[in-house]
Specification:
The chain is an alpha/beta fold and 325 residues long. It contains five helices and 17 strands.
């Protein structure tokens, strides 16, 4: 056996084995899977700073300590199948970390400091109790795989997560997603598994190529959960037996089968941009453009993006033909 790797799984340890202190200068990988270890002690983080790989899956760990940041060489951390309820802010200091496995715990959220993990490539969070993801997760520019399956209280994923430069695999099956993003980094994304969320009423066409044939067949199931009203709205559609769920900013939604009105042209959008400029309010502008367009120009945007890093202006119109059940 390689002296730098310790395989101590399935040994009935009831605490972190102190024998590790005798070889702390040599060991770089430790496997302690399926024991009964309840905590990661401070001495372990202080003395095992050379570790690059740590597997503690299937133990009884209730929290990851702040001292985890002392494992400065850690590249892979597996704490899945424990009872961890929160991650410390100091996890953001693990700058070499590329794999973080936290599936089957009791996490309800992630610290925003997770966005500091610039080398993080794989993040596994399935079977937790997540209710939301921090927008800072999109700052993990090396992230390639994000697994969120079976987080029953997760209602949405920030759109910016779908546009990260290297994201290739994203899975969030059997959650409570209400909306899917209309923007995806199609240059990098290869696999998307999002469609077994029975609160969804439609999916954007940009995701259509990721659909499996049988996904079109399932019937939506009304969930007995309180849906958060501040970022979505229900819209009645004659073609559907139930209301459709759309972003709250889309206050005017047109059915292309019934309306001759089309979405705003590029010219109109450009003119609306001018609505914030002083010269756009002068009499000469009113005299230069049609009165209907001037009225819409003066109406301006209806909102701004709720994502603080974005904050772009949002206008009010969409056409129902852009989406499909």
């Amino acid at each position: 056996m390689n002296s730098t790797i310790l395989h101590w799984s399935y040994r009935d340890f009831r605490q972190m084995p102190e024998e590790l202190t005798t070889c702390s200068d040599e060991v770089v990988e430790v496997y302690l899977k399926e024991n009964f270890i309840p905590a990661i002690p401070r001495w372990f983080c202080e003395q095992m700073s050379r570790l690059t790989f740590l597997c503690l899956a299937g133990n009884l760990i209730t929290c990851v300590p702040e001292e985890i940041s002392l494992l400065i060489n850690l590249e892979s951390l597996d704490v899945s199948q424990n009872v961890v309820e929160a991650l410390p802010k100091s996890v953001g200091k693990l700058q070499k970390l590329s794999r973080l496995k936290l599936s089957e715990n009791k996490l309800t959220g992630l610290p925003k400091e997770i966005g500091q993990l610039q080398n993080l490539a794989i993040l596994e969070l399935s079977k937790n109790r997540l209710t939301e993801l921090p927008i800072e997760l999109s700052h993990c520019l090396s992230l390639q795989e994000l697994i969120l399956d079976d987080n029953y209280f997760l209602c949405r994923i920030p759109t910016k997560v779908f546009t990260m430069p290297q994201i290739t695999y994203l899975s969030a099956e059997r959650c409570n997603l209400l909306l899917l993003p209309f923007i995806v980094n199609t240059d990098s994304v290869e696999f998307v598994k999002l469609f077994k969320n029975y609160t969804l009423t439609h999916y954007p066409m940009v995701l259509e190529r990721f659909m499996q044939p049988n996904y079109d067949q399932f019937n939506a199931v009304q969930q007995n959960r309180t849906l958060k009203p501040f970022y979505y709205q229900r819209v009645r559609c004659d073609a559907s037996s139930q209301n459709l769920i759309f972003p709250a900013e889309l206050v005017t939604i047109l059915d292309r089968r019934k309306s001759l009105q089309m979405p705003g042209t590029l010219v109109e959008i450009a003119l609306r941009r001018c609505s914030t400029a002083k010269w756009s309010r002068c009499v000469s502008l009113k005299d230069c453009i049609p009165s209907e367009l001037y009225a819409r120009l003066r109406s301006g945007p209806v909102a701004t993006c709720a994502s603080i890093p974005c904050s772009n202006e949002i206008f009010s119109e969409c056409v129902l033909g852009l989406v499909k059940r």
